[in-house]
Amino acid sequence: MEQQMKIKSVNVSEKKGTIKKPVEFIKLSNIGVEGDAHSGLWHRQVSMLAEESILRFEKVMGRKILPGEFAENITSEGIEIKDTLPLDKFIGNNIELEVTQIGKKCHGSNCAIFNETGNCVMPKEGIFLRVIKSGNLKSGDTLVYSQKTFNFYVLTLSDRASKGEYEDLSGPKINELLQKHFTERKRKISITSNIIPDDAALLEQHVQKAVNENYDGIITTGGTGIGKRDITVETVLPMLQKEIPGIMEQIRMKYGSEKPNALLSRGVAGTIRNSIVYTLPGSVKAVNEYLTEILKTFEHLVYMMHGIDNH
Fold first, then answer.
1. How far apart are CA 100 and CA 198, in angstroms?
2. What is the number of alpha carbons within 13 Å of residue 263 lying toward its C-beta?
3. How confident is the model at residue 119 (pLDDT cuts 50, 70, 90)?
4. Which end of the chain has less Cβ packing within 10 Å, N or C?
5. What pLDDT digit, counting tens, does each position of 290-310 carry?
6. pLDDT tens, position by position, 132-155
7. With DSSP H G I counted as helix, E B as strand and the rest as coil, what are the percentages for the chain, rounded to 5?
8. Residue 202 in 3-state DSSP?
9. Phi and psi for 296 in degrees, rounded to 5?
10. Residue 108 CB neighbour total at 10 angstroms
11. Which phi and psi (to 5°) does residue 146 adopt?
12. How far apart are the first and last CA of the chain?
C-alpha cells in the first residue's frame, strides 16, 4: 500500500539561518527551490519537516509553531518523514524528490532560528532532499512515498553445481546474509540468483546484463583460486571502471593472519557504472567472512556513487 503525504505549507527565505516564510508555491529545479537561500548544486537542496514532528515539539515549547519557523522549505503531514532513509523518494505530479540526509548539525546560539525559538527540531527530525524531476509544489498537493529497494545479483560459478552434481551452498548463504543485513536496517531488498559453469564468456555476459539493469550490487562466488578453471578474477577485473582494493586486502589480512590459506584468494571489488561488484571465494565460510566486512561499507559506497556526501 502506497503512503501518501500532504503538503501543508511551502516556505522560502533569502538568507541562510533565518526563518522561512510561506509562499503560494515553490518552483523546484536542478538547484532546488528557486529563490531560496539553500538552493544550489549540492545534496541538501530542499529541507522538509513533518507536522507530526512540529506538534510534538509544540508540547515541549508550550506554544504554536508556524510553518517555516524551523527553516523548512516543505511542511508536510501524513508520514513520519524522520523514519525515511537516504535514496528514498517522494513522487508527485511531474515532481520527484530524493532523500539525501536525515537531520543535521545544530549550530545552537550561532543560528538565528535557535535564538528566536530557543530550540530546534530540524537537526533531529528534519530531512533533506534533492530534486530529481522539476516542477511546482504548493500547499494541498500530495506526494507518494517510495522506499529505496537495494537490488542484488548473486552469481555462483561452479561447473559441478551448474550440472546439478552437488547443491550450491555459497549462493544461498549470500542471499541469507543480505536479507538479514537489510531487514535489520529496515531496508527493502530484491535478490536475483543464478548458477553458471566456470565460463569466462558466460560470466562476462551475466555481469554486463546486471550492470545494464542497474543492480546496486553484483556478487559472484567461486573461481577466485588459482586452478585452471578459476577464471572469475581474470574476467571481472578488466570490466571494472574503478577498483576498490582496500576492502579485499583488509579481509585477506584479517583472516589470513590466523589462517594463511585465506591469503590465497584473489577476489577483487570495484564499480562498473552504477553497480558495485564483489568476487567472493566459493566456500560458505569465506562468504560469511567476506560479507561481514563488505556490508559494513556497502551503503556508504552506494551513497558516494549517487553523489550523496552524508558522512
1. 40
2. 6
3. low
4. N
5. 999 999 999 999 999 999 976
6. 999 999 999 999 999 999 999 999
7. 35, 30, 35
8. helix
9. -70, -25
10. 11
11. -125, 115
12. 32
Name beta bridge partners: 48.
74, 127
Give the whole-angstrom CA distance, residue 209 versus residue 196. Answer: 14
C-alpha cell at position 269: 571489488
**Residue 226 corresponds to which amino acid?**
I
Which pLDDT belongs to residue 112? 52
Nearest CA among 287, 277, 191 for reference residue 233: 277
Q: Do the strands 74-77 and 89-92 form a parallel or antiparallel pair, or are they unpaired?
A: unpaired
Superfamily of domain 3-146: PK beta-barrel domain-like (2.40.33.20)
Q: Are strands 74-77 and 21-23 parallel, antiparallel or unpaired?
A: unpaired
Positions of CATH 2.40.33.20 in the chain: 3-146
How far is 221 from 170, CA to CA, in rounded Å?
A: 7
Q: Where in the chain is the domain with CATH 3.40.980.10?
A: 149-305
- This prediction's pTM: 0.90
Rounded Cα distance, 211 and 138, in Å? 38
Give the Cβ contact number of residue 67 at 10 Å: 20
Q: Please state, in angstroms and rounded to a whole number, the distance separating the CA atoms of residues 134 and 126.
A: 22
